[in-house]
Amino acid sequence: MRFLCFSDGLKNNWGFGESPRGIKQVFHFLMSTVCLMLLPGLLMAHEIRPAIATFAMQPNGDYSITISLNLEAILSGIGAEHEDTDDSPNAERYNTLRALSPNELRSAFQPFEKEFLEGVTLRFGDDIAESPQLGQLTIPEIGDLELARISEFVLTGVVPYGAESFVWQWKEAFGSSVIRVLPQGEGDGVSFWLQNGDPSEPISIAGIDQRTRWEQFLDYIIIGFEHIVPKGLDHILFVIGIFLLSSHWKPLLTQVTAFTIAHSITLGLSIYGIVQLPSNIVEPLIAASIVYVGIENLFTQKLQKWRAAVVFAFGLLHGLGFASVLFEIGLPRDAFLEGLLAFNIGVELGQLAVIAVAFVLIGFWGRNREWYRPWVIVPGSLAVSVVGGWWFLERTVLAG
What global pTM score does this model have? Predict the structure, then answer.
């Protein structure tokens, strides 16, 4: 009886009708979805993030640079063109290094140390400074192999006499980087997100941002946007799940508004240190939210009263995920609110871009057709749930 009720639900809500062929279609969709979508689900295992470099002046006139990075990715030669270590042909080498103890990884780094230091370029005026010296290297314990291990370097060097500014450049093969400058006195801090080995603009030694506030504002909009497109695969999938329930603007706007308000709240509270949860709790819950949205789409054909409340609750979780990025990159001390607002705007633009692409590709020309639910909403929602379920397993059972 339970099976009959379930199959009736499939026929009524999924739109395949009563024929056996309809049930076969459901089965084929499910199997093809599982086969095609499990592989992309693996992409979240070892996501590559930029190196975070923090420049500071010392009382004696020397400088120090603290760099937080994925050392295993650099040592294994994971190319800058890859968003995830598993995409690279050197993934096996990366996984071997990731399993090394701190002392073993330190030994593996020693032959590479000279090349690494030469990949850090500081130009003071027209002169390129000597390569910095390695002052300290901190490598965490092995921990969860499914998560990237972030090691910390402290580099030191001498600022040439009379230098007023410097240009930072990070070797292209090492991936993207964020250079942050801690302010001295009353000066503003500054952050640059750099890719493809591009040099930064000249940065004042005193930490005074020579760019306008507007240019800095745009930087954080770009960072927020890129956290969704292309880096935020789990957030993209959640937004697609929202879109699939109904591609009509009123129910879509209701859900997106609830999601936006919610993640804006927890993003702000988390950045200010009021609400914080460890990533090993937040990330599985985000994956679970993706599963829920996809499954609910299969058993309802219109926006229910509770849907907006559920999306709001899940938005609170996603806001904590967004905050983890800002914690790594940092916000300008004297432009804190502007940076937070700009990042949030970038996130919203990224989400709207996902919705716009989905609407143009499938929603605009298919949403009122009879085949739209059985051939678009159902397989799409199945795909969302399967990938979300795999990510949940990766972040819980398989992470142990």
Answer: 0.60
